[in-house]
Write a structure and sequence with these properties.
- This protein is mainly alpha-helical.
- The protein contains nine helices and no strands.
- Helix 2 runs parallel beside helix 5 and helix 3 crosses helix 4.
- The radius of gyration is 19 Å and the shape is globular.
- The chain starts with a helix and ends with a helix.
Length: 140
């Protein structure tokens, strides 16, 4: 087998979606709501168990999570851990130290922005749940 084949087999799209979703603090149910009426928490759970996911669905999820599709397709946890362990500031790797000065954005601002988006998503989820409760009350 070639190296490219080995690498593509190690990439698990569903697991990568789960990792990005969890990094953003989203629950499966919140992602399901953003994906539309055909989706449920159970369907998101089943999707996260799939090794390979169709490009159309990947594009939808990437847009919701605000990450490039390639990030989901190519994220390799082992490589990421290796890079973090070997390229942190203060390591003996002199080349890694210069890369920290190239940020074009404030990471804290980005984090706050993500928290605000997450808050809005939960507010929409809560409003949706309240509507369901009202419908059930009116039905009985």
């Amino acid at each position: 087998m070639s190296t490219a084949t080995n690498e593509s087999k190690n990439i698990h799209h569903g697991r990568n979606i789960k990792r990005f979703r969890e990094m953003l603090g989203l629950k499966q149910e919140a992602l399901a709501i953003e994906l539309g009426d055909d989706w449920s928490q159970r369907r998101v759970s089943l999707l996260e168990a799939k090794e390979t996911i169709e490009d159309e669905i990947l594009a939808q999820i990437a847009a919701i999570l605000r990450v490039p599709v390639e990030a989901i397709k190519n994220f390799d946890e082992e490589k990421a851990i290796y890079n973090i362990q070997n390229n942190y500031e203060g390591s003996n790797n002199q080349g890694a130290q210069s890369s920290y000065s190239t940020f074009n954005f404030n990471p804290i601002d980005k984090l706050i922005e993500l928290f605000e988006e997450n808050k809005q998503l939960y507010e929409r989820l809560l409003a949706s749940e309240r509507e369901k409760v009202e419908l059930l009350k009116n039905k009985s």
